[in-house]
Amino acid sequence: VQLQASGGGLVQAGDSLTLSCAASSGLFRSYTVGWFRQAPGNEREFVACFSWDGKTKYLDSVKGRFTVSRDNAKNTVYLQMNSLKPEDTAVYYCATTRVVWGRVTEENFYTTWGQGTQVTVSS
User: Fold this and answer.
1) Which pairs with CB-CB distance under 8 Å and at least 24 residues apart come from 7-10?
2) How do residues 2-31 score in pLDDT, each as one tens digit?
């Protein structure tokens, strides 16, 4: 499975963006898909994920603002980001894993990564 992340851009604080993660294969449907982000000078951090069986998990700081969803017919996972803040500025990556649900926030268990898309939020 190959992943293509897209949808990033430059927005103002309070605006919305939707990121997409498109997979090359329907095998994608059997994976949990996660979104991570990396800001300059920071470690990459978990943002959200959508499991193969419909569960979701979020970073505390994005709960209520970000929504992850999945369209298996299109082999695509989305990250709807509302009420964006300057601290959301980062390169966003999508990735796939089959790790147990209890470890889905750990990037070392993700085996395939997309190329990243830049999100910049100005104040």
Assistant:
1) 7/117, 8/91, 8/92, 8/117, 8/118, 8/119, 8/120, 9/118, 9/119, 9/120, 10/120, 10/122
2) 999 999 999 999 999 999 999 998 888 899
pLDDT tens, position by position, 56-87:
999 999 999 999 999 989 999 999 999 999 99
- Look at residue 56 and give its three-state secondary structure: strand
Q: Measured on CA atoms in the order 66, 70, 74, 76, is the torsion positive or negative?
A: positive
Q: 102: which residues sit within 8 A by CB, 6+ positions away?
A: none
* Residue 60 three-state SS: helix
Give the burial class of 50: count Cβ atoms within 10 A of its Cβ; 0-12 exposed, 13-18 middle, 19 or more buried: buried
* CA dihedral for 21, 25, 27, 29, sign (positive or negative): positive
